[in-house]
Amino acid sequence: MRHYEVTFIADPVLSGDEVKATAQHIQDELTRFGANIVAVDEMGLRQLAYPINKRSSGVYFCIEFACEAADFIGKFELNLKRNEKLLRFLTVKLDKYGVKYNDDKRNGRIGKRAAAAKKAAEEAAALEDSLTPDVVDLDA
Amino acid sequence: MAASREDVKFLSNPRIGLRRKKYCRFRKFGIKYIDYKDPDFLLQFINEQGKLLPRRITGNSLKYQRRVATAVKRARHLAILPFLADLMK
Predict the structure, then answer these.
(1) What gap in Å lies between CA B85 and CA B88, rounded to an integer?
(2) Which of A28, A81, B61, B74 has a CA that sits 20 to 30 A from residue B27's CA?
(3) Distance (Å, rounded) from C-alpha A72 to C-alpha A67?
(4) How far does the CA of residue B82 sit from the closest CA of chain A (Å)?
(5) A9 contacts on B by Cβ (under 8 Å)
(6) CA of B18, closest CA in chain A: separation in Å?
(7) Closest C-alpha among B1, B49, A1, B33 to residue B41
């Protein structure tokens, strides 16, 4: 199974529904080509670092998908290029470390907040253990 | 009589001026994948003008410096990082 990741930027002047429709259209295209979608990440409206097509912001999407065959990637990218609602796109093949990183990121195991949350959970568990009273056997 | 050079040196930290050990942070912490979508992480490897920092400054090994470079270039393509800027940091 080959894992890929496509990140694309949708035009910000489109209405919210149109943006969602565009993303949905691309997902349907992928499933039609025979890929199974692992995750869809809408990164939302972001400021671009430089203007593209005179626009200074865009709606970012990231779709991670997996497929056995790989011949449809060329056709898929051609369709993305022809789509007027997209400003930019980038398709990347993910190696096993990339797949693992994305998986960890989705499950919150990455980042300082994740480490802090894990530490807080551990401390809470330790505190709970120390607070539970010793079981006193009254019948003895 | 002026103190000799050896005496003077030990009034302060004798280790002063010793080079801090430079290491590749990816090798040390076992990070295998560099995400191009994460601009806050990639900011460590570019200067205020948005240019990539050389390996002798960042301390990366060759393998990871190349991966950092491709990640930064992908981020630039997706307008997550600029090609050229002023006062990036």
Answers:
(1) 6
(2) B74
(3) 10
(4) 5
(5) 78-79
(6) 31
(7) B33
For residue B70, give the chain A residue with the closest CA.
A92
Q: What is the interface pTM, i.e. ipTM, of the complex?
A: 0.78
Topology, domain A2-94: Alpha-Beta Plaits (3.30.70)
Domains and CATH numbers, chain B: 21-89 (4.10.640.10)
Blockwise average pLDDT, block size 10, chain A, 140 residues: 94 92 94 93 93 94 92 93 94 94 87 64 71 67
Signed CA dihedral, A88, A91, A97, A99: sign only:
positive
